[in-house]
Design goal:
- This protein is an alpha/beta fold.
- An 8-stranded parallel barrel has the order 1-2-3-4-7-8-9-12, surrounded by 6 helices.
- It has 12 helices and 12 strands.
- It has a single domain, classed as TIM Barrel, CATH 3.20.20.30.
- Helix 3 packs across helix 5, helix 6 runs parallel beside helix 7 and helix 11 crosses helix 12.
Length: 366
């Protein structure tokens, strides 16, 4: 198994100390967190996209560029890029630039997002989100793969013979499809034969497994091999302690504070409280052994090769404690137990090819 640490830059008052970080302090916290993740052997660091309080992550390409300047190895993910509301020309330009500045370490996870506040900001309705995402992604792919693109659609002005600059550094910037609530996301991933990343954050395992199963079924429909499918999964928050009871006690104030925010309540999680989530949901709160057992249970259900975790909301000292303990006591076991084909090879840049002169990238493999 491979591992990603991610942040949505949620900046609410600390539930234990009452401390509130300034925006500058939170940005610096995330930069240090990414450096720590690289030093501890995480394969990737992700920054999500949100457009409203309490999140400060409205500009992932800018934040990831700063992280790229302070790291050298770790992959840089968007968790997720809310492509349903963004101009594909701007996305193509911004992320191709980041791809160069990071030396080809960029990977996008695209989605429609789960915070309805961004729709009026960018001039589309929530009812249009899936059609908008599909159209914008089709254009983004063309802009990265082709030159002199002529295009006309519904969600941006038409293009005539456009070649975006810079061209991506990688031959093909890997794109994952974020999946949380609808088979429309898994359908789009299957259509293009591209990897799926399940949010696996707010609901029971069965909901996310049904979406992943649909993805594999539709891969076969579109002529791709379901056995080669690449799946990643989130897990929400992480908190480790010597016993499950201690972890629940220590994390409960943080859990309650986050689930009281409007952003969390929008997801309508069915879990009554932290104890219910620990017993029946995806949250990783417990002893190292109990957390390992839960991750392996979910991995068996999903067939996932990548796990993403977050320590948003904790004090910086607790963030470091949790990340280091996860790297020391959990990651080695899961690396042994779960094979992963993801991120085993360096990025393929323009002018190189994994197939000699053909220039085609392998479907489903990242």
């Amino acid at each position: 198994m491979k591992f990603a640490l991610f942040s949505l830059l949620s900046n609410i008052p600390n539930a234990v100390t009452g401390e509130t970080l300034t925006a500058q302090q939170k940005f610096q916290n995330v930069l240090r967190q990414a450096e720590l993740a690289e030093s501890l052997g995480f394969e990737a660091y992700g920054v999500g996209e949100r457009h409203g309080a309490p999140f400060l992550s409205s500009s992932p390409p800018v934040i990831l560029t700063a992280i790229a300047a302070r790291t050298s190895r770790i992959r840089l993910l968007t968790t997720v890029t809310v492509l349903s509301v963004l101009d594909p020309v701007r996305v193509a330009e911004d992320y191709a630039t980041l791809d160069h500045l990071s030396g080809g370490r960029l990977e996008l996870i695209i989605g429609k997002g789960n915070d309805p506040r961004h729709y009026p900001l960018f001039g589309i309705s929530e009812e249009e989100q899936w059609e908008s995402l599909a159209e914008r992604y089709e254009l983004l792919k063309r802009l990265w793969q082709e030159e002199n693109v002529t295009w006309e659609g519904r969600y941006r002005p038409k293009l005539e013979q456009v070649t975006t600059q810079p061209r991506p550094f990688q031959q093909h910037i890997p794109v994952w499809h974020g999946s949380a609530s609808s088979t429309l996301s898994t359908e789009l991933a299957a259509k293009y034969g591209e990897p799926l990343f399940s949010s696996n954050t707010f609901h029971p395992q069965a909901k996310y497994k049904a979406l992943i199963d649909h993805y594999r079924e539709r891969l076969a429909y579109y002529g791709h091999d379901p056995q080669s499918a690449v799946v990643g999964a989130g897990a929400g928050s992480l908190y480790l302690a010597n016993t499950k009871e201690e972890a629940i006690r220590r994390f409960k104030p943080y859990y309650d504070a986050f689930y009281a925010t409007p952003a969390a309540q929008h997801n309508q999680s069915p879990f009554r409280d932290i104890e219910d989530n620990v017993a029946n949901g995806p949250i990783l709160v417990g002893s190292p052994d109990s957390v390992i057992a839960k991750i392996l249970d979910y991995q068996q259900a999903f067939g996932s090769q990548v796990l993403s975790i977050s320590v948003d909301g904790l004090t910086e000292a607790e963030q470091r404690e949790q990340i280091e303990r996860f790297a020391d006591e959990v990651m080695p076991v899961l690396r042994r137990e779960v094979p992963s084909t993801v991120w085993n090879n360096p990025p393929v840049t323009r002018g190189q090819s994994v197939f000699g002169s053909s220039g085609h990238s392998p479907v489903l493999h990242v």
